[in-house]
């Protein structure tokens, strides 16, 4: 087990946490609309219901700290300060997107915010994050690395290899498991032997399970983990219990997968992260924030839809730092 740091938050901080959760919730709802209208062609893995995890994690970090996101990653980017307009343009695959439309919803990066994209294979980011943490530790930059993954990742070999090295070399990395109870349609209880925190503890990593619906609880756990990492005391594993309100992916709007009940969904909605954070903000501030978020998102949608569509002819541009080069003798 690890200790959560006691935190006393000023009201302005609480307002700011509410704003971030609201921004993520409404951004995702706008994305659902854009999926339905056919503008967001890939579909998305919506993080609605999980917003407090990303928000609490990012609130404990400095701008220079490094983040490895997951396929359900929009909230991670917004919480760490990515620009909603260029980020949304990226999801729509437009040339004015943050990665010139090459990353899309599943694999964007935001180098202005030190956010790296999800690996195609679930769980493998944990090993890459250990490498990044080794790198910053060698360079003595004082940066902390965070790595998000879901409950579906915790039995992957690469993840456990990452845990091993992170602990052995006391790396400044914080692993965050967003346990939203399902990997696609597979309940966590049917897939995970033992416990998620037990995997961290097996490698000597301080590990804790927290209420992922309460942003202040997540922030408290993160504050302690960041302090440990910066002090050279090594990694932490935080398992945040949470729930996604929508399907694994928006393809579930078309295909009905009967793996969870309406009752279960209703129970989780009773502990809505947005409502919990809203309860700590005055009604007046709340309506000001809500109006501001809508204005930001109106502009983001306009900016994204105005972006140029990509030209298939330059599909290989920006793939390599030097541009695509024919192999010697290939021509
Ligand atoms: C190694 C590997 N196996 C399977 C997949 C296909 N896949 C993509 S997302 C996903 C579910 C992941 O569930 P979880 O890790 O719990 O994250 P969540 O989707 O719940 O956020 C699966 C099986 C993959 N990308 N990589």
**Which sequence of SSEs, written as H and E, runs from N to C?**
HHEHHEHEHEEEHEHEHHH
Q: Which regions are unreliable across 5 or more consecutive residues at pLDDT < 50?
A: none
Structure classification: alpha/beta
Distance between the termini: 60 Å
What's the mean pLDDT score? 95
- Rg from alpha-carbon coordinates: 20 Å
Total number of strands:
8
Q: Give the strand content.
A: 5-15%
Name the shape in a single word: globular
Number of helices: 11
Ligands: thiamine diphosphate
Largest sheet report: 6 strands, parallel
- Give the strand order, joined by hyphens, for the main sheet: 2-1-3-4-8-7
Helix content: 40-55%
Would you kindly provide a written description of the structure presented here, covering whatever features stand out?
By secondary structure, the protein is of the alpha/beta class. It is 41% helix and 10% strand. The radius of gyration is 20 Å and the shape is globular. The N and C termini lie far apart (60 Å). Thiamine diphosphate binds next to strand 3 and strand 5. Thiamine diphosphate (TPP) binds next to strand 3 and strand 5.
């Amino acid at each position: 087990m690890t200790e959560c740091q006691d935190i006393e938050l000023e009201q302005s901080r609480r307002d700011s946490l509410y704003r971030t959760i609201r921004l993520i919730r409404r951004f995702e709802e706008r994305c659902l609309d854009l999926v339905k209208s056919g503008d967001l062609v890939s579909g998305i893995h919506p993080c609605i219901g999980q917003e407090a995890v990303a928000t609490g994690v990012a609130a404990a970090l400095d701008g220079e700290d490094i983040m490895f996101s997951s396929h359900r990653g929009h909230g991670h980017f917004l919480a760490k300060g990515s620009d909603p307009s260029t980020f949304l343009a990226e999801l729509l695959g437009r040339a004015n997107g943050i990665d010139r439309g090459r990353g899309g919803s599943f694999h964007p990066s935001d180098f202005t915010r030190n956010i790296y994209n999800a690996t195609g294979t679930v769980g493998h980011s944990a090993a890459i994050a250990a490498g990044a943490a080794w790198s910053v530790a060698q360079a003595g930059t004082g940066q902390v690395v965070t790595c998000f993954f879901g409950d579906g990742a915790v039995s992957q070999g690469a993840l456990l290899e990452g845990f091993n090295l992170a602990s052995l070399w006391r790396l400044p990395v914080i692993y965050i498991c967003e346990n939203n109870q399902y990997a696609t349609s597979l309940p966590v209880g049917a897939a995970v032997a033992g416990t998620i925190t037990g995997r961290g503890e097996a490698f000597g990593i301080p590990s804790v399970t927290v209420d992922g619906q309460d942003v202040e609880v997540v922030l408290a756990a993160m504050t302690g983990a960041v302090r440990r990492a910066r002090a050279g005391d090594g990694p932490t594993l935080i398992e945040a219990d949470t729930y996604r309100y929508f399907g694994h992916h928006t393809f579930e709007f078309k295909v009905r997968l009967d793996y969870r009940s309406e009752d279960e969904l209703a129970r989780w909605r009773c502990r809505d992260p947005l409502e919990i954070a809203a309860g700590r903000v005055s009604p007046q501030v709340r309506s000001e924030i809500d109006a501001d978020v809508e204005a930001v998102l109106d502009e983001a949608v306009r900016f994204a839809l105005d972006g140029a569509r990509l030209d298939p002819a330059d599909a290989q541009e920006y793939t390599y730092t030097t541009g695509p080069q024919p192999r010697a003798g290939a021509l």
